[in-house]
Amino acid sequence: MINEINTNTRLESNPTLNPTSIKVAKRILSLNDQKANELRAYYKAHNLYVINLMSSPGSGKTTFLESLSAYEDFRFCVLEGDLQTNRDAERLEQKGVSAYQITTGEACHLEAVMVEQGLAELGKRCDVGSYEYLIIENVGNLVCPASYDLGAALNVVFLSTPEGDDKVLKYPSMFLCADVVVVSKADLCEVFGFRIDRVREDLARLKKDVPLFVLNSRDSASVGAIKEFFVQCKNEGFYSAHIF
Fold first, then answer.
1. Structural Rg of the chain based on CA atoms
2. In the CATH scheme, what is the code of domain 29-233?
3. What average pLDDT is seen over the chain?
4. Largest separation between any pair of C-alpha atoms in the chain
């Protein structure tokens, strides 16, 4: 102990030492962030407005995209993310939508490099540059996708009625990255006692002025309202300010 004190004293009094401290810090996800910036450049070069759809599994994202395919004035292609199977991409292809399935194996989210690789494969199936919108349907998960920047202009979070109306504050990271929230399967609100006002209030506490849409995919008006919002965001040059 005495030797340690003497050593510290000698070091502190040594005039040749530079006492300046250096802070070393690096974001763990910096490689993903770099790739996300490259994707932004790609999107811009191909005039693509990119929308990132996030939610729990089974929230109705693919069903919404199937309904969206009915609008001839909204031309979009899709990258699908799931751990296994091509089922969602196949569903969309049956609706005439150009889609490519990214299977992640065990990863519970999409990363920028996966999107880059998926775009290369999608480009073999269609002329990506001929579309106005690219929609990325992320892996169903209310946690991990909130940490990975995919370079999207608009981050959309679906919250389905059967999940319950308490998820906004339970999973704050996901809803903090949302530029818009969609309550899906709204025709079941009464069945599950789902309170849209509670979602609206919790959103206001967490992140003010986040648009909230209520979706019933059997109701074309609710689908159309979200479609028009996407078009408005593109026309106004909206770009998410969220930092993942």
1. 22
2. 3.40.50.300
3. 91
4. 81
